[in-house]
Amino acid sequence: MGSIRVENVVKRFGKVEALKGVRLQVQDQEFLVLLGPSGCGKTTLLRIVAGLETPTQGEVYIGERRVTHLPPRLRGIAMVFQNYAIFPHLTVYENVAFGLRMKRRPEAAIRQKVREVAALLRIEELLERYPAQLSGGQRQRVAVARALAVEPEVLLMDEPLSNLDALLRLEMRAELKRLLKETRTTTLYVTHDQVEAMSLADRIAVMRQGEIVQLGTPTEIYHHPADTFVGGFIGNPPMNFLPVVAEGGQVVLDGLRLPSPAERGPLLLGIRAEDLEVFPEPVEGGFAARVLVVEPLGPHLQLTLEREGTTFRALADPGFAAAPGATLYLRPKEGRVRFFHPETGKAL
Amino acid sequence: MRVWPWLLALAFTLWVLLPIYLIALSAFSPREAVYAWPKAFLPGSLSLETLRFFFGVEGVWRATATSLVVAGLTVAFSLLLGAPAGYALARFPFPGRDAFRVLLILTRAFPIVVLALPLAVLFLRVGLYDTPLGVALVHTALTLPFAVLVSASLFLSIPKELEEAAWTLGCTRTQAFVKVVLPLALPGLAATAIFAFITSWNEVFAASVLTLQNKTLTAYLLTLLDESPLPFKFAGGFFLVVPALVFLFLVRRYLFTLWGISHR
Amino acid sequence: MNTRYLPYLLILPSVLFLLLFFGWPVLSAFLLAFREGEGWGLGQFRRMAQDLYFQDALRNTLLLTAVIVPLQVALALGMALLLPRLGGGRDLFLYFWTIPLGISDLAAGIVWLAIFTERGYLNSLLHALGLLDTPTGWLTYEHPTALFLSVVAAEVWRATPLVLLILVAGLQLIPKELIEAAEVFGATPWVRFWRITLPLLKPSLQVALILRTVLAFEVFAVVVALGGRNLPVLAGEAYFWYADYQNPGVAAAYAVLILGISLAATFLYLKALRVREEVYG
């Protein structure tokens, strides 16, 4: 069983509290992504699961075993590092075979297993080479092959794609997805790239300042962010937040009337750029805004607009005629508006 | 490109190499050429006579052997004591690390003269006087701070992730060190070893003060300086220089790690 | 993994070793030097100071240091600044110029003995130029200045490469952009050297000066190889008192004196060339 359970893990570095009591459960065969800005504690959490750091408090379970104080080699894990950490003095073959040799597998079994994962990662041609003779993408494949060769209960990946150039990253991303579906290995994956997280994850845990702020499927997280931080962090462009005031259980923005979760008082209205329909003329259920910037991005036109001192973004068809200074009218799509508390930022 | 930097560079090179050429010339000249007047600057008749005479002198071979033993022990001590400490400096941010660094750097302000004399007195008492082991211990005191600092910078240049990867793949700390860190650090450690070897091979003062019968080559030559004829000195000088040339060739990649960087 | 004690375990052997072979001897040298019969006193120092060779040894050592060290720094600085102008030849020249690094002081003394001795290469050259008729011994008591200069030549030759290496390493740390920026603003090479390169090189210069000065105070084998005891120096006297006169007390007094001036010089350099943190800011 390759599940991971993290219970109330606290990690302090001196006075800095990197993790503030994290709980997390990764199901067997699940691909879970830890997503967050740099310094949020996601890598620390991964390293604690790996056994490379010891938690100040709390427990880690892999399968049903408590592994909190076990060294990495006894945890049944494998890890892919951000800089790949391929052993430069060993051939690709020996790199992939390294973990198997440590397990004292018979030579024939090692040879077979190395061939197998090499085929899986399409690096059969490279087995006799040294890492210095490999490109970045090839090293990446070797690192993944080396980790999969030991058939770990749990695969840990620390920003494995961040050192690749943009094109290669797309390719490897798709490849990883295929691979991990095939091998059905439980995976805990750290990244700061929300697109990567969305594309790969079964579930995403969004982290911020040492805490998990939201845990859910990519769709849930995208459409129902738990707070303004998640909404702003996920999606490109980020979610728009417009300050509004509720009165009599209703929010009114020009022609737009929405039932409000609060009877009265200030609120934040959250809406994604692609969920705003853009009209050149006043429209029923729409509100007005002034165009600041027009950016033709290819598949659509990205508009930066301003209303009552707040800037926000909307997407229009590429052929839409808009000029800076013009006034446009925007109407949210049905059911896509979210409300947040203006101070705490929590979803209402 | 202008010519004068090259001329200047060639002049410097000549300044460095000419004396070495001249000592080699003296060492390979027959005896009468050593006393000739005026001397020829080009090799007239090369001969091994002078060198043969040098090695024929009683005690030279023995002193050479002693020098090798002392240098070998110095290398072993420096690495065995220095590499672990260097590893600690490179990998752990432990309290007291800076104090340890300062201690290492501080040792440079203390002349070997100060170390050698009291240790001679101590060694007389504990039976280490006039032994290769005793000399090697003092030489290790000279090389150890370098060995620690150099190996620290070596280990620092090996990414920690390589070791962590080895741990996750089933290695204990020791196994990871032996299988991953050591092979990668080996060339640098070899350079450190050569450095320790040559420091010991070259050292005169402590070796002279700490020995009586079992002198190292440098110490032995020093005692013979007064009474020995010029050809003997020149052959000896040349014989002392040769390892230096080999040594510099072997460690040229690590020049800055061994001296430049480890001095900050 | 519990690694809290591991680093201490790893440094323990070398700490113990250094305490035993640095801490103890330094302490013990003081005890030895200040021992007088059954009690304590300056007797050893008095004997040292009254010795015939003492004043010469002290003067020669200080004078040698005062001449050698600046010469080495100047030469090394010139060589270090020359290197970048040599394009692809840089590494080769650096290799040649650092060859004396591995040569011992005794060997260096003998090498230069071949040049300065009576029938040596220098005299042969002077003869060829018609400046000298018969072999003349420069390395004798009658020619103290010539002997002094020979020692200077040998020491400068032997130990300049060490300074060179430290300065080259220091120069590599200076961001190129700084010098290029100065060039853009119209600074002449001379101004760039004095206002940018030299101040930024201060930390390296400090290291080189301390190291070379301490080593120059210990100068011994070069002098003995070239002139025996014709040019007395402090470390040489320590050796002779210990080995020839069998008097460790006076020898220790010399050692303590060398340590004293070494520490004083180090302190002076640290004060005079104070390296401010913002230099690298």
Structure description:
The complex is a heterotrimer of chains A (348), B (264) and C (281). Chain A has 348 residues and is an alpha+beta fold. In chain A, 24% of the residues lie in helices and 35% in strands. In chain A, strands 6-7-8-3-9-10 form a 6-stranded mixed beta sheet, sandwiched between helices. In chain A, strands 13-12-11-14-20 form a 5-stranded antiparallel beta sheet. Chain B has 264 residues and is an all-alpha fold. The longest helix of chain B has 32 residues, at 60-91. With 281 residues, chain C is mainly alpha-helical. Chain C has helices spanning 6-34, 43-50, 54-82, 90-97, 105-116, 121-128, 144-173, 176-184, 189-200, 202-217, 221-227, 234-243, 248-272; strands at 35-36, 39-40. A two-stranded antiparallel ribbon of chain C has the order 1-2. In chain C, helix 5 crosses helix 7 and helix 10 runs antiparallel to helix 13 (248-272). Chains B and C meet through helix 1, helix 4, helix 5, helix 6 and helix 7 of B and helix 1, helix 3, helix 4, helix 5 and helix 6 of C.
Radius of gyration of chain B: 22 Å
Q: Largest beta sheet of chain C: what is the strand line-up? A: 1-2
Oligomeric state of shown chains = heterotrimer
Helix content bin of chain B: over 70%
Specify the number of helices of chain C: 13
Descriptive key words:
heterotrimer, B: 264 residues, mainly alpha, MetI-like fold, 2 domains, 13 helices, 75% helix, 0% strand, C: mainly alpha, two-stranded antiparallel sheet, 2 strands, disordered C terminus
Q: How would you briefly describe this protein structure?
A:
The complex is a heterotrimer of chains A (348), B (264) and C (281). Chain A has 8 helices and 20 strands.
Set down the secondary structure blueprint.
The complex is a heterotrimer of chains A (348), B (264) and C (281).
Chain A: E1 4-13, E2 16-26, E3 31-35, H1 42-50, E4 57-62, E5 65-66, E6 77-80, H2 92-102, H3 107-120, H4 136-149, E7 154-158, H5 166-183, E8 186-191, H6 194-200, E9 203-208, E10 211-216, H7 218-223, H8 228-233, E11 240-247, E12 250-253, E13 256-259, E14 265-271, E15 276-279, E16 287-296, E17 301-307, E18 310-316, E19 327-332, E20 338-340
Parallel strand pairs in A: 3-8, 3-9, 6-7, 7-8
Antiparallel strand pairs in A: 1-2, 1-4, 4-5, 9-10, 11-12, 11-14, 12-13, 14-20, 15-19, 16-17, 16-19, 17-18
Helix pairs in contact in A: 2-3, 2-4, 3-4
Chain B: H1 4-27, H2 31-34, H3 49-56, H4 60-91, H5 97-106, H6 112-126, H7 132-156, H8 160-168, H9 173-202, H10 205-209, H11 217-224, H12 230-251, H13 255-260
Helix pairs in contact in B: 1-12, 3-12, 4-7, 4-9, 4-11, 7-9, 8-9, 9-12
Chain C: H1 6-34, E1 35-36, E2 39-40, H2 43-50, H3 54-82, H4 90-97, H5 105-116, H6 121-128, H7 144-173, H8 176-184, H9 189-200, H10 202-217, H11 221-227, H12 234-243, H13 248-272
Antiparallel strand pairs in C: 1-2
